[in-house]
Write a sequence for this structure.
């Protein structure tokens, strides 16, 4: 089953916003066995939209359209769709009620332009927009499904999850597809591939293995295709178990979550707490953790110690250590991580100090040199990394490497 | 002048990566007077690519293609382009030299697949890739320009800035376009619009004003179109000056940079230093600053104090303050910011404490309640905000609001 995504709106074409909707939609469609053939971004222009609709009609059975549904003059998606389908308009009672409720909730007078949002092409079914005033629209036309949704991400996402995806599943005979994701950290794609080559070779043709690498992490995703869901799940689990056993030392999670969330989950389940002493990562590791709800159950916080002074006063790094060995050294990172455990009273701690660049490098400590330490009350592990010369990449790589080291230390205690 | 962007590769169509390249390219093209008519993402499939090329040929004079230039079998952009142009291949000495140098630098043996990357269609001019092995390609064909570049963002960006954009400017008679951006913070789009309505109304038709809002900030962008660059610049400056004078109280920068970078610049120029005490922003403010090269000249660091204990031990917030007024209170945020100045020895400090959500709200301090303080040695300013119930948005809004308050405090001392 093939789909096409059409995004309508000048914001994307002038680069004012990045189109994150399409990637999200594509992922969700993939999960239920629908493949995206093309993504087209077109302008708020009648003839251009008509052309895009006609081209999509030739390529796909499912055409998902986002954007151009606002109340202002430049939003012409709805009337262009009516022209494409050659139909008139009708007022939809449910959509009107929805708009009225929204305006009532925010205590604003209902404007005529908003009332007009409840006018829809005669041939469509309304998809209620619980988060905004523009209704979504579902069209069956010439053996194809067209769905028009707002471009505002959370309005679109809610509609997709709540109504469009279930309706697509009900409308088409889609294959049963089951995914199982294993998150690993600290080993490159090609090394992993070598270690599991025999398992990969033994997969039946209806089960595929994908390597999804991202900055020090690799997600192994098994996707099974079939008719019998129960049987397929059983089969997939057995291959997943083989993979999990084989690469156990680098596995962080058996589900598709972020690395830091996996670590938070693991630590929370065991009642453990964590603090950080960040120098070159400058708050990025803290931000990774604290973006997740409930992180405060595990994460106490810590310090961003850019200056020598903060390393001394907050972490208790000795002045002579800093001057003898420098801020980027085994000795300093060790005192940082042990200072964090001591001062912040957490079970575990992470410390990072390095030269993120582009300035600050020296012959023996070039840009990209990073010392990382992880520690529990009884054990400290340190490691030196040599990354590249791109500041943001160095920050991200340092963070991921630190999380990988913490995962290893947590595993040691498990076993 | 119209352009089309074609991205090639299954990664985008399965939603594995978000296409950030296109937005960046569109922005850069806009700056030099080239408008993007359509963005199409297609799969690594010969006939699909050929179709997309033909369709783009009908719509645009400039066709920029990214992706599908890797050394593996699934990367077919190059040979499909040769088929489209109906030409053979030739080995390019410069491109080969580049690949060889790269492999030498990383001490890896040159594989045959990489040697093949120096094979290019006969009708193209090579665009050297200084950051990777796949050369870019420039084609003049049927009064149109086709440019093929790698999909790796930093390889593509370097090629665009270094070679493609200058070459486009030299190849086409493009209008003179000058932009001038004013960054403001702390006032909504519609309020700003009201304050500068008369200036906006007085703009000649060849100068446009755009409002680019983003999370508490609004960029005012004047774009002038004309033939005489010197004259146009003068005219634009005079309108910019009027705007700057009118909204001076909310202006952060007279160029298109990020809010935190503008503050770093301002503080560095005046030899001032900064530290932070972050609770609910959890390291995000520190990360904003430290992602910028040279931030250590201004930013000392600070603490991420999620727990009561860290607020006490590192910042010196009094135990009774926390228990009497709670962590999210005027009293606590004041002690936090003053503790930061005192303990971290910076000229200025920011403190933030709040309920980011989704949990942790109470009837009198619901999710979204955030106290922010900014301080110098002699003055402390505090403010309570009530944001919404989305955790990440609350974190970002808190950070932007804090930066806005710091900007105001810095301005007071200026004047």
């Amino acid at each position: 089953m093939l789909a096409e995504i059409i995004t309508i709106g000048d914001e994307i074409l002038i680069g004012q916003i990045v189109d994150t909707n399409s990637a999200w939609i594509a992922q969700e469609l993939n999960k239920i066995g629908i493949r995206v053939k093309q993504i087209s971004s077109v302008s708020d222009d009648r003839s251009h939209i008509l052309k895009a609709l006609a081209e999509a009609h030739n390529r796909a059975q499912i055409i998902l359209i986002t954007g151009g549904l606002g109340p202002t003059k430049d939003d012409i998606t709805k009337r262009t769709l009516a022209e494409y389908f050659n139909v008139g308009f009708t007022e939809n009672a449910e959509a009107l009620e929805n708009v009225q409720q929204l305006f009532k909730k925010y205590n604003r007078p209902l404007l005529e332009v908003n009332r007009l949002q409840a006018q829809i092409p005669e041939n469509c079914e309304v998809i209620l927009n619980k988060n905004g005033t523009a209704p979504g629209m579902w069209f069956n036309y010439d053996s194809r499904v067209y769905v028009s949704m707002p471009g505002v991400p959370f309005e679109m996402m809610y509609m997709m999850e709540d109504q469009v995806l279930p309706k697509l599943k009900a409308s088409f005979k889609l294959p049963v597809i089951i995914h199982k994701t294993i998150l690993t950290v600290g080993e490159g794609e090609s090394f992993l591939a070598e270690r599991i080559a025999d398992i990969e070779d033994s997969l039946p043709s209806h089960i595929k293995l994908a390597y999804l690498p991202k900055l020090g992490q690799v997600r192994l995703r098994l996707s099974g295709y079939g008719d019998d869901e129960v049987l397929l799940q059983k089969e997939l689990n057995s291959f997943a178990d083989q993979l999990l056993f084989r690469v156990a030392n680098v596995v962080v999670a058996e589900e598709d979550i972020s690395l830091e969330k996996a670590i938070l989950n693991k630590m929370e389940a065991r009642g453990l707490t964590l603090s950080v002493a960040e120098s070159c990562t400058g708050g990025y590791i803290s931000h990774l953790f604290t973006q997740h709800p409930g992180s405060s159950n595990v994460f106490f916080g810590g310090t961003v110690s850019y200056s020598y002074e903060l390393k001394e006063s907050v972490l208790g790094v000795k002045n002579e250590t800093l001057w003898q060995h420098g801020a980027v050294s085994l000795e300093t990172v060790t005192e940082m991580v042990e200072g964090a455990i001591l001062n912040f009273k957490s079970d575990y701690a992470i410390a990072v100090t390095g030269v993120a660049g582009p300035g600050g490098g020296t012959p023996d400590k070039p840009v990209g040199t990073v010392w990382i330490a992880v520690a529990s009350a009884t054990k400290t592990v340190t490691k030196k990394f040599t990354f590249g010369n791109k500041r943001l990449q160095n920050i991200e790589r340092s963070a991921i490497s630190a999380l990988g080291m913490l995962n290893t230390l947590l595993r040691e205690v498990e076993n």
The radius of gyration of chain A is 27 Å. Chain A has a mean pLDDT of 93. Residues 96 and 115 of chain A are 7 Å apart (CA to CA).
